[in-house]
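Q: What does the assembled structure look like for these inputs?
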Amino acid sequence: AQKITQTQPGMFVQEKEAVTLDCTYDTSDPSYGLFWYKQPSSGEMIFLIYQGSYDQQNATEGRYSLNFQKARKSANLVISASQLGDSAMYFCASQTGTGFQKLVFGTGTRLLVSP
Amino acid sequence: EPEVTQTPSHQVTQMGQEVILRCVPISNHLYFYWYRQILGQKVEFLVSFYNNEISEKSEIFDDQFSVERPDGSNFTLKIRSTKLEDSAMYFCASRERGLNTGELFFGEGSRLTVL
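A:
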């Protein structure tokens, strides 16, 4: 069974600073994918970044990067140069195997960016 | 940019009533999902659907729930007899292909309130 753990219920960061949101995962399947989604107060789920278990390099998408440490089973999201619009809930999720398997989500981290 | 659309955005219903939530996935997508999020909690998988049949369902998805794709475009979630604990945000999602690299696109959600 998959499990995602996000130990930070809330994080605070000042505008323009970088912030790291933690995520650890637990799966016995050698093939898996890790996702990060942003959920603003309006409620929609916005895809941010994806990391495959066999990817050699850490994924990056603009200001988002994923610090993938396979041996430690961690997939932390790093947001550089935080903006006020980054204030939201952030969910880490995993999917095992190949195919159309479900995503399993963590409990989320609420990020607040202050001016 | 193509998107997953959901209707209604908010529905209020009386306990025991039937509810149908509708979703129009992205047109070339093949895999469809329903997730739910009880207020303040994590996103939970309900069901996945491929090739006109359920491919996986969670424990939450009991006999009160059903899904169908009646006309090749709409993907619906029906709750036969709603309970108070069905109050949640329901997200439809779709993906183009069944590989780990396939981004899962979410709709904006349908908020269901059961009184």
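Chain B touches chain A through 29 residues (CB under 8 Å).
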